[in-house]
Specification:
Oligomer: single chain
Shape: globular
Number of domains: 2
CATH class of the largest domain: Alpha Beta
Number of helices: 9
CATH topology of the largest domain: Ribosomal Protein S5, domain 2
Structural class: alpha+beta
Number of strands: 10
Largest sheet: 6 strands, mixed
Helix content: 25-40%
Strand content: 25-35%
CATH architecture of the largest domain: 2-Layer Sandwich
Order of helices and strands: EEEHEHHHEEEHHHHEEHE
Distance between the termini: 26 Å
Length: about 290
């Protein structure tokens, strides 16, 4: 799709509804079992033709990426060009609007890379299948395949085994981050046990909020205790969101420090977000629908 008009692709925030660390492999990476969902809120990527490839970063969290090496969006572009050398214009000017906090447990960089792959496939002068994109995704990072789907899913292994759910209840989420970056490696270093029990069998179909809440009550985020030791504010946020009217579940996402709560209605979610902003005006707070399975 060669065009002079901007092509825009959303990079939805990834939320780990459950994250079980089930083992450590010989290569040092961890085996995981997760249930992930995606919020309508996220970063946004735009592309227009240019003389050469370049990337500009805007948005409320742009400064946190200044000077960052090996930006995943540019790596995704380089991988795409290497695989399909004649598929794209000679140059693309990319603009990444960074709406999500950095190192927040929301898959921001991985979501951005996945958005880049989807955008480039739309632009490509040659057909590019979703399975082709998946081949490029995993070398960019363990979270990139699931972010390529941006669909509720059970995820296993390093993140390369993605099993999209056919059904998922209509839910809203509140996200809050104390604006303290948390390094994933730092959290894993503090993990006391690396051979935890796996997820219970996923109920099929998951169609009602109460049904999902019951299933999630038997799950965990195994990275929550070590992250809480690094950032005690996580515990306060979990307690506050757990007490919010209509809250179905409050838990940390990924390796933190973002905490989420699920709600059955938009009104409940926005009221909880309002209350959190009043209590912690310096924190990042957002309310959003979750992306469904349809």
């Amino acid at each position: 799709m060669a065009t002079a008009e901007p092509v825009i692709e959303a990079a939805p925030a990834k939320i780990n509804l459950a994250l079980h660390v089930t083992g450590r492999r010989a290569d040092g990476y961890h085996s995981l079992e997760m249930l992930v969902a995606f919020a309508e809120i996220g970063d946004e990527l735009e592309a227009v033709p240019a003389e050469r490839d370049r990337l500009a970063v805007t948005g409320p969290f742009a400064k946190a990426l200044i000077g960052a090496d090996g930006n995943l969006v540019l790596r995704a572009l380089a991988a795409f060009r290497a695989r399909w050398p004649a598929a794209l214009p000679a140059g693309l000017a990319l603009t990444l609007r960074k709406n999500l906090p950095i190192a927040a447990g929301l898959g921001g960089g991985s979501a951005d890379a996945a958005a880049a792959l989807r955008l480039l496939a739309r632009w490509s002068a040659v057909p590019v299948s979703f399975s082709d994109l998946l081949e490029l995704a995993l070398p960019l990072g363990a979270d990139v395949p699931m972010c390529l789907y941006s669909h509720p899913a059970e995820v296993r292994g390093l993140g390369e085994i993605v099993l999209p759910l056919k059904h998922f209840p209509e839910l809203h989420v509140v996200l809050v981050n104390p604006l303290v970056p948390v390094g994933t490696a730092d959290v894993f270093r503090k993990l006391e046990r690396r051979d935890n029990p796996g997820l219970p069998d996923v109920t099929d179909p998951l169609m009602r909020p109460a049904q999902l809440a019951l299933w999630l009550s038997e799950t965990r985020n195994d990275l929550e205790p070590p992250a809480l030791a690094l950032v005690p504010a996580i515990g306060e946020l979990i307690a506050a969101l757990g007490d919010a009217s209509g809250s179905i579940l409050a838990r940390m996402s990924g390796s933190g420090a973002t905490v989420f709560a699920l709600f059955g209605s938009s009104a409940q979610a926005h009221q909880a977000a309002h209350d959190l902003r009043s209590r912690w005006p310096d924190y990042w707070v957002a309310a959003s629908p979750l992306i469904g399975a349809g």
